[in-house]
Structures are given as structure tokens and as C-alpha cells.
Task: structure prediction
Amino acid sequence: MGSALSERPRWFAAVLITIASIVLAHYAQVWTVVPSSLAPTSDFAGTYVASNLIRAGEAAEIYDVVAERQALVASGAPVSHDNIPFENPPAAAVVTEPLTLLSSGAAWRTWSLLQLALMLLSLLLVARAAPWPASLPRLPRMAIVLVALAGFGTGLLLVEGQWDGVSVLGIAAAYVLWRRDRPAAAGFALGFTAAIAKPQLVIGVAAYMVGRRDWRGVGGALTGAAVTAVIGLIGAGPHALTSFITAIATPSNSPTAQMQGTSGLFGSLFGHAPGVFLLAVAAGIAAAGVAGWLGTVAHRRPDLFEPSLCGAVALSLFASPHLLGHDLTLLAPVLVAGLAWLAGRPGERLWPGSATLGILGLWVLLSFASLGDLSQNSVGLPGRATPWVLLLTAAAWCAIVTGAARPEVAGRQRVPQSAAA
Result:
């Protein structure tokens, strides 16, 4: 009996690895059968076009829809295809300019593989820095990394050629640097990567940093964002920077009901009814407030760093005004960190315990919710599924944090104090 129990982590890990490998193989199979001729219709097409305009000396036109449209058709997109305009910060088009040396199809495939590689690198870095209990074998750790990589967002990221690999690397690098007592560098990594492409995804993380009184981290994040702005200013010019501000003020490709955060939740529930925008903003502010509270808990109890960060990232995604399925990959690195922390809890000595199974179940449920939301365009109850699951995920981590914060456990493990300062 004892031998069977001691083998339980390895058997369960083997099952997880098998399932995750099948899912990842399916993502790869879908990616390989998508013809390169469809690259000009991918999400990467806007970035590719903007980079080409910069290379051609027309940086001032990277947010001009007409100029983008002409360049997109020239790259091979069907004339009838809806244009997905470039609405990232100028630095995004600057750093991808080397890919314009490739055809649109080759550039898309290269970029997609790079995003996948960045995700895998991020998860491995987090797994190495995370507080695994010494008693847990290597196989379960590998299984958690593969399960995190196999989320549905990874499949979308690979096919669409989105930017989230960069954002995931920023979250992962920040976590590792926090663990190594380097909060300023952690903030820089987060601010630099977020400002390149998706600053809206870290609203709650910023609130978390403020709640933790991580002023060096906040300063580092502002510095990182400023460096990104300077790269865009130098590479694309001041006109592009002002055009970017205008573009995000009047987004042309952000149908509210299709989003998967607060805007998508209330848009799918109430359509274009009066006050929907204000409801979404209020819910986002509330989510950021809870993320800030998690930061204050982590400030008082550094040993709760991992679960509090997990909750903050889930709330940050929920609060995002522009959230789609590929953006859910930002949860992957903190999932690894959070499950490593959970594995060391007294109730998880017989791994996996109920808390680990619950969090893994929510991760799987999030993938199915995002998959279902791809074809969900109706208005009415229950609305889009993804934001509800994000709330459930955040609530689960908040409950774990609250439960762990009650008793003062003697001899508990703590992250370095400067990581909570």
C-alpha cells in the first residue's frame, strides 16, 4: 500500500504528460497544415505591414489604415479580407523589422515559433526558480510545465502569430528576479515587455506591486516602459508615437462582445445597452483593487508571494479592456509557480492533493471556456464563459491566500524579504 502511494505522483504526472503531449501535438499539426499563403490574414500581418512601412521610410504611416491596407494587399492578402490594423506601440514594429527580410509566410512562421520558444523558456525559468518541495520528483515538475504550455491560448498564439510570448517572458522574468531579490530589475522586465505590445494586460499586476509597496519594482517598470517608448521614438519617429495614441483612443478592431475580460462579459450580457461601458470599467477597477489587496497580503506575508501573484494575474486579465484567448497564456508561468508552492503545503503531502487538482481543473476549464467563446456571439445570460472562469480562478487563489494567512505557521518558508518590499 505504501509503495503504491509513493508512486502516485509519478503515475499522475505520466498521465498529465501524455495528455499535454497529445494536445501540443495537435496544436503543431494545425499549425503545419495552415498554408503560408494565409499569413497576410493572420494577427501578425498588421505588425509585418507596419515593419515594412518603417523599412520603406514611411514610418509616419504605420497607423494610416489606407496605407496599411495597400501594403497588406501587396504582401499577398486577398483584397476582400478585412484589414486588422496595427495598433501596438511603435516599438513593436521597430523590433520586428528584421522579419521583413522574409516573405510574409516565412515571417509569420518564424514569429510563431519564436513566441512558442519564448513561452517554453519562460516556463522553464519559472520552474527552476519556483519553491518546489524537495520530496517532489522531477517528473511531476515536468508535467506541470507541459500542462501550463498546453493551454488553449498556446494553440491560438501559435496559429495567430500574436505577441503574447513576449508578455509571458516579461511575467516569468519578473517572477524569477523577484525571487532573486532584484525588484527593480523585475519591474523593468515587466514594464519593458508590457509596453512593447500589451500594456492593458498588466493593470492588475501594477496594482499588486503598489499593494506590496514594491516601489523599486514600480520605478523599474516605469523605466522599462520609458525605454520602450524611446525605441519607438527613435525607430519610427514622433509622429508615429502621437498616431499610436490616437489609434488606441479609437480602436477599429475591438468589438466589445468578443472580448473575454470585463468588456466582453458585460457586452455579451447586455449588448450595447446604456451603461455597459461604465459597468466594465467599474468591474475592472474593482478587480485591480482586489489585486492590490493581494499585494498588501504578500507584503505582510512574503511566504504567500506565489498564490497572491497567481490571483493578481488572473484579476489583471479579467480587468483588461482588450482580452482574447491567446492572452490567457500570461497565466501559464504563474500557474507553474503557484502549483510549486501548493505542492509544499501540508495538505499536499500526498501529491496531488485537492488544492492542486482544483487549480488544474480550473486551468482545463479555462481552455474549454476560451474555445467555446470563439463561436459565441449571442447576447444574454450567461454571457461569455472566459471571464467567469477567470473570476473563479482568482477567487480560488484568494481563498487559498486567505486560508494560508490565518494560522501563523512556525518555521514557514519565506521568499526573500526584498521581494516583498
About this structure: The CA atoms of residues 310 and 335 lie 7 Å apart. Residues 409-421 have pLDDT under 50 and may be disordered.
